[in-house]
Amino acid sequence: MKVAIGGPLKVTFRPWVEGLENIPAEGAAILASNHLSFSDSFFLPAVLDRKVTFIAKAEYFTTPGIKGKLTAAFFKGVGQLPVDRSGARGAGEAAIRSGIQVLESGELFGIYPEGTRSPDGRLYRGKPGGLARVALATGAPVIPVAMIDTEKIQPPGKVLPKVMRPGIRIGKPLDFSRYQGMEHDRFVLRALTDEVMYEIMKLSGQEYVDIYATAAKRRIADAAKAEKEADRAARAALAKVEKERTAKQQTAEGRQEQAETRADRDRPAS
Q1: Minimal CA–CA distance to 143: which of 199, 205, 201, 209?
Q2: Which of 112, 191, 239, 252 is the most buried (most CB within 10 A)?
Q3: How far apart are CA 15 and CA 40, in angstroms?
Q4: According to the model, what pLDDT value does residue 270 have?
């Protein structure tokens, strides 16, 4: 897949990279990145010599039919790991177990602390569960990564990508051994996550927003819904006014016609 996908990506988009020396030649490490685009999971592995394993919803691997099999083969090939999201806390716990397994095998594990793509290009608050718990459970260093301009290549809703140069900045590894054995302390999980997000912010230059991206998406969706409903109401009100105006005009024309009819009837014959 590095040859079939990574090669054409690098030739076509020519991504620039800073900080490659911060990726260890061997051994476990966590790559914690901001998340601007679906393509982030392709550009980052494409510029590295080592395999990077990300997590993906299990439905990508279990869809029946030829298309489902092709999709499953594609995601396996690019290093995606299926995660069963069933259960009350299925997604989070499955992601943590998967991350630990990857790191215990001495590989690179990629994770997006925001939990979802940024809805507007800004950097949002990191979720403390997955990243922090995996880091403390394994002792693996956390390497902050900033994806630059990938959201401009293929914005949501666009089918054809725009050919331009994205960027990748890789920071120095962060050591959290001082928190070892404290993975059940929520304040420690929060502090570790915030430290990583701060480093990502410095690398990316993004504006930081201290709310979760999922909440921001809900607000944007609610605002869009409210705007749509307001537009619908305005259109309905305008239609009502137009209907009433037409009715009044028709009434006036009817009265005028009746008056003219009476006048013609009452006019004496010559």
Answers
A1: 199
A2: 112
A3: 11
A4: 56
